[in-house]
């Protein structure tokens, strides 16, 4: 549910990529009796964290080597027995996570003594503690910017998941869709550069429905294409233009629980380099077969207007969220396009944005935004109240270079299309 390459994007080899026009405390956890390690790769980093007086959680990454050299055993991502973090409170963090306070549940220690002189039996005390990691805990990554091989990515912009645990990536620079499992293992790919059925020209958005179908915003071909989960072509609709069912630049696509399809048209043809062509930024709504149902939006900064809508997402309550990067804000509508709310302004503070391109929702109605220009992800509740943020500019684990796509699976794992770093990153957000 996210957007394509930003203007001026290049591959790792320096070759220009076709432009899509837009204006514009996992702390080192001490495992106590009964607490199991988190399953993940042994090389995943350990985050040593402390909570400041403000409530913000400051983290820095420690390697599994730090765990072992402190006499511990590396149990998985962020877990070490015993805790190697020691003096972390005095360390300078390399990443910052601001989240709700972690939830801790503890069983009260119990001691039972039975005396029948002269014999005494005492049951040893036991304590079970489970600490949830903060939203934005890095889990894993995949993708290399080396070409068009399986699992390689060039400017990935859209990412979506289905109910079977598959992850679909709009590999924009390679003009194709790739499918992975939840661990990043390559499963399948389809598409090539062209205009035929099943071919693409800079696909930027991808979404799935409850039946496992896959919808792709085929941006420079001015259309939506529909496939089954294996990549078999099913249908297509759209053509260049500003009429109902036509697109100038279809960049975002989403579905709702009723099978409706929402398309974000940024309102400017990607080939219109000088802004001389028509402008009609809007959201269009279709049924699952591509039949036009309604549309809303116009050029501007008022409520319900857009500068360049890019990301679109629907929640289980019939709300539609739109990332409006040109206006540096989010907007919320009902399923018919009636304006409900907006939040955000230009800046780098909590709840502010710099060209937000991607948006996704979870089963609780929370909203996740790819804050592209600020190289981070922000989380809000359904009313736009700020909840958490993570990320900074860079190429390390948990860092981003212009992330444009975001989605979340049923296990509260967040997947981010880290566009400028040509990879997908996966995070925990319990």
What does this structure look like?
- The chain is built from one helix and 33 strands.
- By secondary structure, it is an all-beta fold.
- It has a seven-stranded antiparallel sheet with strand order 1-2-5-30-29-28-27. The chain has a four-stranded antiparallel sheet with strand order 10-33-32-31, with no helix packed on it.
- The N terminus is likely disordered.
How helical, in percent, are the residues?
Answer: under 10%
User: What count of helical segments does DSSP give?
Assistant: 1
Strand content: 35-45%
Overall spatial form: globular
What is the strand arrangement across the widest sheet? Answer: 1-2-5-30-29-28-27
Key attributes of the depicted protein:
single chain, 430 residues, mainly beta, 7-stranded antiparallel beta sheet, 4-stranded antiparallel beta sheet, 33 strands, 1% helix, globular
What is shown here, in short?
Helices cover 1% and strands 38% of the residues. The chain has one helix and 33 strands.
Secondary-structure map with pairings?
Elements: E1 46-51, E2 57-62, H1 64-69, E3 73-76, E4 79-81, E5 95-98, E6 104-106, E7 113-116, E8 119-122, E9 129-131, E10 137-142, E11 156-161, E12 167-171, E13 176-180, E14 186-190, E15 203-208, E16 214-218, E17 223-227, E18 233-237, E19 250-255, E20 261-265, E21 282-286, E22 292-296, E23 311-314, E24 319-324, E25 329-334, E26 339-343, E27 356-361, E28 367-371, E29 376-380, E30 386-390, E31 405-408, E32 413-418, E33 423-428
Antiparallel strand pairs: 1-2, 2-5, 3-4, 5-30, 6-9, 7-8, 10-33, 11-12, 12-13, 13-14, 15-16, 16-17, 17-18, 19-20, 20-21, 21-22, 23-24, 24-25, 25-26, 27-28, 28-29, 29-30, 31-32, 32-33
């Amino acid at each position: 549910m996210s957007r394509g390459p930003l203007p001026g994007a290049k591959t790792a080899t320096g070759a220009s990529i076709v432009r899509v026009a837009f204006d514009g405390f996992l702390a080192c956890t001490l495992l106590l009796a009964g607490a199991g390690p988190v399953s993940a790769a042994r090389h995943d980093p350990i985050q040593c964290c402390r909570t400041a007086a403000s409530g913000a959680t400051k983290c820095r990454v420690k390697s599994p080597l730090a765990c072992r050299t402190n006499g511990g055993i590396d149990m998985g991502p962020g877990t070490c027995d015993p805790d190697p973090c020691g003096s972390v409170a005095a360390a300078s963090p390399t990443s910052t996570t601001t989240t709700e306070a972690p939830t801790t549940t503890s069983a009260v220690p119990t001691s039972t003594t039975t005396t029948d002189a002269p014999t005494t039996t005492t049951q040893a005390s036991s304590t079970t503690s489970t600490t949830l990691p903060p939203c934005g805990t890095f889990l894993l990554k995949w993708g290399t910017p080396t070409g068009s091989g399986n699992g390689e990515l060039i400017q990935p912009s859209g990412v979506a998941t289905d109910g079977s645990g598959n992850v679909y990536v709009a590999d924009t620079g390679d003009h194709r869709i790739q499918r992975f499992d939840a661990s990043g293992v390559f499963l399948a790919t389809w598409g090539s550069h062209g205009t035929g059925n099943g071919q693409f020209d800079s696909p930027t958005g991808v979404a799935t429905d409850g039946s496992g179908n896959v919808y792709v915003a085929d941006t420079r071909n001015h259309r939506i294409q529909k496939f089954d989960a294996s990549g078999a072509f099913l249908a297509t609709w759209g053509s260049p233009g500003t009429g109902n069912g036509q697109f100038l630049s279809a960049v975002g696509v989403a579905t709702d629980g009723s099978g409706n399809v929402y398309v974000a048209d940024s309102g400017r043809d990607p080939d219109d380099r000088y802004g001389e062509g028509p402008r009609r930024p809007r959201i269009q709504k279709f049924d699952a077969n591509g039949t036009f149902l309604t549309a809303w939006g116009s050029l501007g900064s008022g409520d319900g207007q857009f500068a360049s809508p890019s990301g679109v997402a629907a929640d289980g309550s019939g709300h539609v969220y739109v990332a409006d990067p040109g206006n540096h804000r989010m907007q919320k509508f009902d399923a018919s396009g009636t304006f409900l709310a907006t939040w955000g302004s230009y800046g780098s503070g909590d709840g502010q944005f710099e060209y937000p391109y991607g948006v996704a929702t979870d089963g609780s109605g929370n909203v996740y935004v790819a804050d592209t220009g600020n190289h981070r992800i922000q989380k809000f509740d359904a009313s736009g109240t700020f909840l958490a943020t993570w990320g900074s500019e860079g190429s390390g684990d948990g860092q981003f270079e212009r992330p444009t796509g975001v989605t979340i699976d049923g296990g509260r794992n967040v997947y981010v299309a880290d566009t400028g770093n040509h990879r997908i990153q996966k995070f925990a957000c319990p």
